[in-house]
Structure formats: C-alpha cells, structure tokens
C-alpha cells in the first residue's frame, strides 16, 4: 500500500511496528525475541478466577460470621485483613496486567481496534473492580494506618505477572524491591499483633464524636495537606514545571494525599453502613451527615484520579506509579493516625516496629524508581518496545514530542494533496461557492433542473416537501420532490443515498417511498452502533453513528458538496428560522472528475460492512475527502504549512488532550508557537457554537457545551507545553461564536481556510466522531484552492464584521473583534472565554461522557455501515 493510501488504522500503531518481546536468556548474552502469545496463560486465567471466587467467599463469610456465631477475635480480624489484602492486591495487579496485555496486542496488530475493545481489557476492568471491592471491604476490617503498606503489594504482583505473563524482565532491582516490601508488610503485621488493638465498630454518632473530638490534629492535618497541595500545584502551573521533578512530586504527592482522604471517606461510609445494617437502623441512610460522608468520596476520588492522570500523562507508568504508591501509603497512614487515632493504643515498641515496616515498604517502592532511572540511562535493550510504549508518558506515546514534525506526521505530504480549482471560465461547472443557504437552494434547483442523464444525491437530513428558494419565476414554489419527479419524466436516472434514522426529523422510509417516483433508486446506509436498553432512558438518540455525507452530482459532470440538506432550520444569512435563531451554511460546487464519479457510483451500491473499523475503507480520490484519519491528515498538513493565517469554522469543537485523537487544535497551537519563535505575523480564528439548539438529546447538548470548555483548556495546556505564555497565545488566536442582536447564528459552515488560498469545506465536525483513525460517521468534503478562496474569505469576514466590500488584513480583523482604546468591538463574532471552574471538574465530566457513552462521542466502539438498495418493502430499514 502506498504511503498516501487511506486507511483506518491508528497511525501510531502501524502494522510495521510488529511487537516482539525480548527475553534474556541466562545462557546467552544475546537477546532472543518471541511474539506475544495469542491468549493469556491458562494458569494465570485460573489463578485470577480462583482469586475472585475466594474473595467473594471470604466477604460472604465475614458478613455472615456474626449470624453464624463464629468466634472472631482481634487476631482473626488481623489475619482476615491480611488475606483479603493479598487477594485484592493480586486481583488489582491482574487487572492491570490484562489491560497492558490488551495494549500490547493492539500495538502488535492495529486491526484489532483500540485496547478497550478487547475482551481481555474488559476482563481487566472486572478484576480491578473486584480488587476495589476487596480494598473497600478491608477498610471495615483493619485500620487505615495498619493496612497502608499493603498498597505496595500490587507492585510485587505486577512485577511477577510482568515477568511470567508479559515476558518482561525481573532483575535485581525487582527482587530487592519485593524483599523490602514483603519485609515491610510483615513487620507492620507483627506491630499490629503486638499492639493487640481491639476491633472497633462505629455508628454514625460515635464516628462523629471521633472525627470531631477535642483535638487540633484532624482540622490541622486537613488544612496543612490541602494548603501544601494548592501551593505546590500553583507553583508547578505558574512556572511551567509539569515535566520537571517538581511536577512529579506535585502530581504523585497530591494524588497520594487525596487517596488517603478517599480511603478515609470510604472507610467512614463502610463503618456506618456496617453498623446500620447490623442494628437495622435504616434511617441512618437518609441522615444528612451520612450523605455528606458519601459525597466526600467522589470529592476526594475525582481529584485523585485527575492528579493520577496528569502524572501518567507527563511521566508514564514506570516513573510515576512507584512514587504514587509511596504517597498512598503516607496518605493512608496520616489519615488513619489523625482521624481514627489508630496508633493511640500502640506501645512504643509496637509503634517503632510499625514505623520501621512503613519505612521498609517505602524503600522498596523507591528501589523501583532507581530501577527506572538505571534502565533509561543504560538503554536496556531487554525492554520490549510495545510495553515500553504503554509505560511512556501519554504525550510521548501519542504525540511524539521529540519534535513538532514527528508529532504532526501524516500519511501524505501537503504537496501530494490535490485541489479543485477554476478550470475554464467558459464552462458551466466551474468552481464556485455558495455563501448562505439561499444561495445553496438556488444551486440545488439549478442542478436538479439542468440534469439530463443522472442525479446522485446523498443526504443526512432532507425535507423533500419543503419549498426551495429560487429567483427563477419558472421554478418558484418547487420542492425537492417535485424537481425529482420532473427529472424522472425527462428520463434522468436518479439515485438517492439516504439516512433513514429519524432522530433529527428525517422522513420515514415509508413516507419517502410514497412521495418519490418508483423509478428513483433509493439506498439507505445505516450503522449498527446504538444505545443500550439502559441508555435509551437517558438519551433519545437511536443511533450513535450516522450516514452524514451531503452531495449532489448532476450529469456526472458537476458536484455540489455540503449545503444540500434541506429543512426549516436552515435559512439564509441573518434570516431567522422557524426556531427563532439564525443559520450559517456554505457549499462548494466543482467539476466532477472521472475518479470522483467512480467513487460516487460505488458509494450508492449495496454493501455489507462497507465501513468497518477492522478493515481498510475505500476513500474517495482527491480533491474529495471522507472524514477519518485521511481528512484529519489533510487539515493538519494545511495548518502546519500555513504561512500567515488559519481560519477554522466548525459546528462543534472537541480537540486536544489525551482524551482526543484528532490533532487539529494542537496543530494550531504548534503553528502559532513556530511563528512566535520566528517572529512571523500569524493569526488563527476559530468559530464554533456556544450552544447546540438543534441536538435532540439533552446529553448531546450538554456534552457539546462542555467540550468547548475542554478544548479551550487544552489550547492553553498545549501553549504552556510549547513554552508560550497565555497572553502570547491569545495575541495570535481568537476563538468565538456568532451572534446577531443577542441571538445565536448557528455555525454550520465547517470550513478550514489557510492563507486565503487553500480551503476544505466538509460535513465533518471538529471531533473524533468525524476526524480520527477511529470509528466515525461517514463524511464528505472538498479541497479547493485559488482566487475563489480569497474572495470567499473576504466575503465571510465582511459578513461577520457587519461590513460590505471591505478588504481586511488579519490585524484589522482582530482589532474589530476585540476593540481598542478608542473603538468598541464590532460585528457578530463574540469571543468565547474559558470558564473559571476547576479543570478537574471538566476532566471528570469529559471522562464520564466519553467512557459511558457507548460510542456516542466517537471512536471507541466498532461500527459497521450497511448500505441497502430498497426493494418493494416500503418499511425496510425503518428506525
């Protein structure tokens, strides 16, 4: 396959990157390599299942113990907690191992999809959940400080499973670390046995008295730790130290501190729940104090996961996790000693032993850090490429930040892209652009009326009975269906590729077949990706992926791309639609080349699994693009090759950060950084929507609004990563929406213009659901260049700035948008600013939407499109 060929393979995990797992042999100095096995070892699967079963049985035994009149003294509870910790740590380590195995398998064979799609990854999630249940139950058995060192047991299991399941090395550092951790845990258990601490249960009242006892320690500890976290994080943020040792300390310590508070809140809820169930005091669960304890869990857990995510993003698993585990131990020990006063009954000898055990455990964790630095410094060849990739910081893995060129590598170059241009000014199918929906309707009427041989029409949403605007007296009052009927009477061969999903107001199949002539060839493209039975109660979407291509090809000579969907939401420039707001639409009309025609004909033919993630998809030839990674590559090439300006308009904006695959916003920031470094004048304008009034689902509207906050945050994060101050970024960049008389102007123009010379008008939105190497909607766009692009850009700027016939420079555009000391801001562009709430909140909600959406947010679930030509059954494919 040529380098410019389109594929839906994740570009960072290409087939050429075959994964071989090097294993050192004691009898050979050389390194041999073997491939990762296709299945997990049977002994590992059985051990994981047996551990899960034993954990469940053990929990049942502990729950039924009092009812069975079993003798359970202090020693019993101590060893019950130890056994539970051993099982829970193994389950957690097994879960991590399964997930890493899935990542390595995907790296070995990109056609498998993404790691979360793999069954073994989902099994890992189950094992992690079981480990979490075990850890939570353990909080009701042992004190928080006593079990703090047990957190490090997961590291030992992970090292052993890495050696025997993933074929990683297990050297002297791993052996020394394991010995120190085991010794630390054993000493800690011995200290607890010496102290002979009575097992205590807490009611809501007694717990309240304990936590609010006459002591400065609980309040003081809380104030000191939270102040430490805020001061350190503020310094890291202001001095841009995210990738330095200060950042490593900040993210690991803050995550560990919050882990301590998470365990504290969870233990409190577990203790109160346990006593309430035992005493049958059901009113406890509606007590406001219990509600506060329950709310405290996510309030601590969300920041913990946020700092964990940041640590992994900047430092990777190998560097971050050992230090994170050390601070988990310290955080749990601190909360247990301060809030539950767990060391009060320890004798001086027992306390000494306990502190010695904790120090030994932390030393064992520290050995792993030494191992990482030694391996990285010595370039240990035994370290397998695939597992190293999984352990690397997220930005190094996904973005290749060694240099900007590598980060924004594409499957083809800017020079290899082909563009539609003005051909012969004497021909009727010359390149032209429609600047609003009235012009689009004129073009639709013109193409349908002029057709003599064939019409190929693809639509996402069309009201065939809506009257089309036209200045032609002969065709006034015409509708799409009436023009199609006239075309059929002339002997025109009409093909319609239809989206039958009715979520956005599309006609039903039965209605469509009833109104269209029977000679019309109707094909429907439907995806298999939709909500589960549970999600249907939360969202009124019946599908999560759509046929979204919009074009008309007339007489195999002229093609109109986008702007040909028809309904009452769409209106001319600054003309209110029936919903009371404005609509901004664009369309491009160009000559249809033989290669484009060949693809269009094939697009209307029946196909099973036409666009399936596991296989290559057939992309149209340039200048057409059809979403996915190929179109994303085009946009990245255009942005990175821009000389002085980028203008991007998109219905939605979801880009940036490790949660998004598309690189559009990071590319804009990278280009600004280059220009700033070279002292070049450069401006970037991004227009999108602050609200999505036409989305049928409340969840979709909420997600789109949240995504703007996310993207603005990520723009600033990218700028800081490139060494740009935020005021330097915003000198070159303007993000805004359109409003007229305080009423929304819906941006539906989805266009990228660079330097006033190159443009891409597409149905694709700025989101992974349209622009990624992951599963997405079907899209279509057209690349075009030449004088028409500059004419279009100046017309658009005049429209947005409320003027006519002006020729703007970009400095003048920014001045009119922002105003100056002597002039007020003018025009329709309203700057979009980042809200002041915490990025932790945004990060949490984005994760919640993305990973609970079953693919609605794009890219994480396989999707198949099946195209059928309808027969006599008018209700076929009805949705």
TrEMBL record:
Domain PLD phosphodiesterase: 743-770
Regions that span the bilayer: 43-64, 76-98, 119-142, 148-166, 173-195, 215-233, 285-308, 320-340, 346-370
Main location (coarse class): membrane
Localization terms from the record: Membrane
GO function terms (MF aspect): catalytic activity; magnesium ion transmembrane transporter activity
Gene3D superfamilies: Endonuclease Chain A
Keyword Transmembrane helix listed: yes
Lineage: superkingdom: Eukaryota
Keyword Membrane set for record: yes
PROSITE patterns linked to this entry: PLD
GO cellular component: membrane
Membrane topology, record value: Multi-pass membrane protein
Keywords tagged on the record: Membrane, Transmembrane, Transmembrane helix
Protein name: PLD phosphodiesterase domain-containing protein
């Amino acid at each position: 396959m040529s380098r410019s060929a389109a594929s839906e393979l994740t570009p960072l995990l290409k087939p050429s990157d075959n994964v071989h797992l090097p294993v050192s042999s004691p009898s050979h100095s050389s390194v041999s390599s073997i491939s990762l096995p296709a299945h997990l070892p049977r002994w590992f699967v059985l051990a994981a299942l047996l551990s899960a079963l034993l954990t469940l049985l053990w929990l049942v035994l502990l729950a039924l113990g009092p009812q069975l009149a079993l003798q359970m003294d202090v020693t019993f509870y101590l060893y019950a907690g130890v056994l539970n910790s051993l099982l829970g740590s193994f389950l957690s380590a097994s879960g991590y191992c399964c997930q890493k195995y899935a990542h390595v398998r995907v790296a070995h064979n990109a056609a498998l999809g993404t790691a979360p799609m793999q069954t073994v990854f989902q099994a890992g999630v189950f094992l992690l959940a079981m480990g979490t249940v075990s850890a939570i139950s353990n909080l009701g058995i042992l004190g928080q400080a006593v079990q703090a060192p047990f957190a490090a047991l997961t590291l030992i299991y992970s090292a052993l499973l890495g050696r025997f399941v993933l074929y990683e090395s297990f050297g002297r550092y791993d052996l020394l670390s394991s010995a120190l951790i085991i010794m630390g845990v054993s000493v800690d258990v011995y200290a607890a046995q010496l102290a002979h601490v009575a097992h205590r249960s807490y009611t809501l009242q007694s717990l309240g008295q304990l936590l609010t006892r006459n002591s400065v320690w609980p309040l003081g500890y809380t104030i000191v730790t939270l102040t430490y976290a805020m001061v350190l994080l503020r310094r890291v943020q202001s001095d841009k130290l995210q990738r330095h040792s200060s950042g490593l300390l900040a993210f690991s310590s803050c995550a560990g501190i919050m882990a301590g508070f998470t365990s504290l809140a969870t233990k409190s809820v577990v203790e109160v729940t346990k006593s309430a169930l035992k005493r049958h005091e059901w009113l406890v669960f509606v007590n406001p104090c219990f509600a506060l304890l329950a709310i405290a869990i996510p309030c601590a857990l969300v920041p913990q996961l946020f700092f964990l995510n940041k640590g992994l993003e900047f430092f990777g698993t190998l560097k971050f996790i050992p230090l994170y585990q050390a601070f988990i131990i310290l955080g749990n020990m601190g909360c247990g000693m301060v809030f539950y006063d767990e060391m009060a009954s320890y004798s001086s000898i027992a306390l000494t032993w306990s502190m010695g055990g904790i120090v030994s455990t932390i030393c064992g964790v520290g050995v792993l850090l030494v191992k990482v630095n030694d391996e990285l410094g010595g370039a240990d060849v035994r370290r397998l490429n695939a597992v190293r990739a999984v352990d690397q910081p997220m930005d190094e893995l996904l973005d290749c930040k060694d240099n900007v060129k590598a980060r924004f590598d594409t499957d083809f170059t800017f020079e290899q892209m082909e563009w539609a241009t003005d051909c012969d000014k004497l021909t009727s199918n010359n390149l032209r652009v429609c600047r609003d929906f009235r012009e689009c309707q004129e073009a639709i009427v013109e193409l349908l009326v002029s057709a003599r041989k064939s019409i190929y029409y693809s639509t996402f949403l069309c009201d065939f009975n809506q009257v089309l605007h036209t200045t032609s007296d002969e065709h006034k009052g015409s509708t799409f269906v009436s023009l199609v009927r006239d075309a059929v009477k002339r002997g025109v061969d009409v093909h319609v590729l239809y989206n039958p999903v009715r979520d956005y107001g599309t006609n039903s199949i039965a209605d469509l077949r009833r109104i269209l002539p029977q000679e019309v060839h109707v094909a429907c493209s439907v995806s298999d990706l939709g909500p589960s039975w549970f999600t249907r109660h939360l969202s009124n979407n019946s599908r999560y992926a759509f046929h979204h291509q919009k074009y008309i090809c007339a007489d195999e000579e002229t093609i109109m791309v986008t702007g040909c969907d028809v309904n009452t939401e769409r209106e001319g420039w600054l003309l209110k639609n029936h919903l009371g707001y404005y609509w901004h639409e664009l369309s491009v009309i160009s000559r249809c080349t033989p290669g484009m025609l060949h693809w269009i004909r094939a697009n209307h033919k029946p196909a099973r699994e036409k666009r399936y993630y596991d296989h290559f998809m057939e992309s149209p030839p340039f200048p057409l693009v059809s979403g996915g990674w190929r179109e994303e590559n085009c946009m990245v090439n255009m942005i990175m090759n821009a000389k002085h300006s980028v203008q991007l308009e998109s219905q939605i904006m979801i880009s940036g950060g490790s949660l998004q695959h598309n690189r559009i916003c990071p590319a804009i920031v990278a280009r600004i950084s280059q220009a700033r470094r070279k002292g070049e004048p450069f401006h970037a304008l991004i227009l999108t929507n602050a609200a999505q009034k036409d989305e049928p689902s409340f969840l979709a509207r909420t997600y789109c609004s949240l995504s703007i906050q996310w993207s603005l945050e990520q723009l600033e994060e990218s700028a800081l990563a490139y060494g740009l101050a935020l005021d330097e970024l915003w000198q070159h960049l303007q993000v805004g929406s359109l409003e007229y008389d305080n009423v929304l102007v819906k941006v539906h123009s989805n266009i990228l213009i660079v330097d006033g010379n190159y443009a891409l008008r597409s149905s694709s939105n700025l989101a992974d659901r349209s622009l990624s190497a992951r599963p997405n909607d079907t899209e279509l766009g057209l690349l075009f260049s030449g004088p028409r692009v500059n004419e279009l850009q100046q017309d658009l700027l005049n429209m947005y700035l409320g003027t006519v016939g002006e020729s703007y420079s970009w400095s003048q555009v920014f001045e009119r948008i922002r105003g100056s000391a002597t002039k007020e801001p003018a025009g329709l562009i309203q700057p979009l600013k980042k809200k002041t709430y915490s990025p932790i909140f945004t990060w949490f909600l984005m994760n919640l939407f993305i990973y609970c959406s079953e693919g609605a947010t794009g890219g994480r679930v396989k999707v198949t499109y099946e195209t059928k030509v309808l027969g006599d059954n008018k209700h076929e494919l009805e949705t």
